[in-house]
TrEMBL record:
Protein name stated in the entry: Probable membrane transporter protein
UniProt KW Transferase keyword: no
Pfam families given in the database record: TauE
Lineage per the UniProt record: Bacteria, Bacillati, Actinomycetota, Actinomycetes, Micrococcales
Gene source species: Ornithinimicrobium kibberense
Membrane topology value: Multi-pass membrane protein
């Protein structure tokens, strides 16, 4: 596989993997960098090959950033592990039904959601700056139930479609459960690791993964994920919030252009 790629294309894909790992570690959504890069760099591959290879690259970076966050932030596993478990089940179910969803219907829906998330975040400047847990001490069962629901819903989305999953996890944990952006990012990485693994459980038996390319991009994701997690931990929730808004804006522009191209084309 690698022998058939132009060296310039391989460097381009490696840099995309590095950038995706960094962005994904801080706020999630690295797939919106890596997946389009694969589409441009390997135009002859089928959609399922691109999705599966993207998952292989992503899981390496997500695993690295998860470990880094765990060692430096120490997220509460009483919420993180059930969240990851429900996300795994949701992602496996989503991946199994991915072929039923058309991209023509998907882009406008996701664009609307991203804009709503952006407006909500900007309208609440203090959101996520400090941790104010909802239900955590008074109603721990409700706190856990909301976390499980977040895992299933966003996990199903990741398995079926995927772009921006990590960002959606961060936003849901901050807005629905009151976590600070840094703690939310740490939990989101663990959940995102589970959704990537679940999708690969579905894709690998189908022979969809381009292993050599995926491993190269995975190695670059590891470097990016490690650097991104360290920067996020060092700079704190305020930095993560600003980065979140910037990445969200980039997602809105990209998907907005894709939607306009669909409508005009």
């Amino acid at each position: 596989m690698l022998e058939s790629l132009d060296p310039g294309v391989l460097v381009f894909l490696a840099l995309a993997g590095l950038a995706a790992g960094f962005v994904d570690a801080v706020v999630g959504g690295g797939g919106l960098i890596q997946l389009p890069a694969l589409l441009v760099g390997v135009p002859g591959a089928s959609p399922v090959q691109l999705l599966a290879t993207n998952k292989l690259g992503s899981i390496a970076g997500t695993a690295t950033s998860s470990i880094t966050y765990f060692r430096r932030v120490r997220p509460d596993l009483r919420t993180a592990l059930p969240l990851a478990g429900s996300a795994f089940l949701g992602s496996a179910g989503g991946a199994a039904t991915a072929f039923l969803i058309s991209k023509e219907a998907f882009n406008p829906i996701i664009l609307t959601v991203l804009v709503a998330v952006g407006v909500y975040t900007l309208d609440r400047p203090s959101m996520g700056q400090m941790q104010r847990l909802r239900f955590g001490h008074v109603r721990p069962r409700r706190h856990l139930a909301v976390a499980l629901l977040i895992g299933v819903v966003i996990g199903a989305y990741d398995g079926a479609l995927g772009p921006g999953t990590g960002s959606f996890f961060v936003f849901a944990l901050v807005s629905a459960l009151g976590y600070g952006f840094l703690e939310a990012s740490a939990k989101a990485k663990i959940a995102n690791l589970a959704t990537n693994l679940a999708a690969l459980v579905v894709f690998v038996p189908q022979g969809a993964v381009m292993w050599e390319l995926g491993l190269v991009m995975g190695a670059c994701n590891i470097v990016g994920g490690y650097l991104g997690a360290r920067v996020a931990v060092a700079r704190g929730s305020r930095f993560v919030r600003v980065f979140f808004v910037l990445v969200l804006t980039a997602f809105i522009v990209k998907i907005g252009l894709d939607t306009a191209e669909q409508l005009l084309g």
